[in-house]
Specification:
Number of domains: 1
Oligomer: single chain
Number of strands: 0
Number of helices: 13
Shape: globular
Length: about 250
Amino acid sequence: MSAGWVAVSVRAGSMTRSCLDRDRARALAASPKLQSALAALNATQYRHQVQAGQTLAQAQRAVTSTLLWNLRVLAGWAPRHGVTVLRALAGEAEISNVVDHLQRLAGSEAPPPYQLSGLATTWPRLSRTASSGEVRSVLATSPWGDPGGSTPDEVGMSMRASLYDRLVGTAPATAPWAAGATLLLVAREVLVERRGLPSPARLWASRVIGTAALSAPTVAGLRASAPAVVDAGAPRSPRWHHLCLPGA
């Protein structure tokens, strides 16, 4: 094992020891008031960015920003393949940046982008675009692929489907994670919101969960068609910032 992997292993071990376990995460989610949850988080390593008085959206961004900081530290030590994996794991933050950027281009307010540094896949190029059409063109020539549309919803859906497909190829151990997230994406967009997935998103999703799941007419049918790997005991969503605390 190289010195880089040793350093990453030590740091990752520190992060793991500081993770919220399932019971603590559920207790946090069951807090009767937002301020109670913020007080609980303020007793953890999130205290550097989570502050009393924050709104829910501000607290969520603070949690994500804290974990991104730790992922950037890991990336500074990791060998090339390790950085590739970490970049994929940080993909949700880049998706948020792109969707928020599209909102700003449309004249709406949006929070400042997450700081990705070396964890960015294509964000530096995307951040310089001046129209939704440019955003789509840049994505089409990037690892994200053509989203099949240029609205925030279309881009967000396609980028997530692309990310989950890329996660499976980059880090096969995340397959249960990625499959669960893809099923949730399909359930929300197709069965609840009654919106069809853009063609590229359907292709990427089918590679993760199979074509049968994409044509399921009900949530029960979607569950029945779910790949067996989803029940392998891994978390069902790669929204990685929900459970893990950074190390000291």
